[in-house]
């Protein structure tokens, strides 16, 4: 079990303990071990600039209160703060090493050790939620639960940003070399993400497929969806 607390702050969220399943523990260990390599590869989010700009423009105020769920090294949080310096961002992750990098890369954001599956327990609401590539580590049912939780944690007209890897959900499984480190990846389909958003009271601001080269001769599409909660 892992307690969630704001890192580098006197404020702590200790009301609840989060039970972390074995697969999540495996994933967190991989990200802790590879934090700097991940930062070197993914710190530049310019391929997603257009959709991130649209997220910013869809927010109600330049001083919006935003949560970046599974923030990684702070790559998206840095992009948002550069665009909206007055925004108040809470960056959360289950990897302590990623949170350490976030504090270095974006020192003006708050950070918290929080399981993405339990971000709803944070006792505040937000104008915007960033779910940038957390869905590959959530099952289909957990994705639908996440969207439902987002509809509760967002204020009226709040904005949810989603990016994830497109693929048949039935083909989810462990990826990586047979003699090396493997990670469980969940692939998702845009139709049920969109349907969950609509069912939870969101209007679709944008839904696109964006080609991406994952390296090692593997190419695919990313799903990028922005939803805005109805008043």
The secondary-structure element order is EEHHHEHEHEEHEEEHEE
Give start-end ranges of low-pLDDT stretches: 1-18
Number of helices: 7
Broad structural category: alpha/beta
Question: Strands across the major sheet, in which order?
Answer: 2-1-5-4-3-6-7-11-10
Main β sheet profile: 9 strands, mixed
Shape: globular
- The Cα radius of gyration reads 17 Å
How are the secondary structure elements laid out?
Layout: E1 2-7, E2 12-18, H1 22-33, H2 35-42, H3 49-58, E3 65-69, H4 75-83, E4 88-93, H5 96-105, E5 110-113, E6 126-132, H6 140-153, E7 154-165, E8 173-175, E9 183-185, H7 190-199, E10 202-213, E11 219-229
Parallel strand pairs: 3-4, 3-6, 4-5, 6-7
Antiparallel strand pairs: 1-2, 1-5, 7-11, 8-9, 10-11
Helix pairs in contact: 3-4, 6-7
Report on the architecture of this protein.
- This protein starts with a strand and ends with a strand.
- It is globular and about 50 Å long.
- 32% of the residues lie in helices and 33% in strands.
- It has 231 residues and is an alpha/beta fold.
- Helix 3 crosses helix 4 and helix 6 (140-153) runs parallel beside helix 7 (190-199).
- The strands form two sheets. The chain has a nine-stranded mixed sheet, with helices on both faces. The protein has a two-stranded antiparallel sheet with strand order 8-9.
- The longest helix has 14 residues, at 140-153.
- The relative contact order is 0.15.
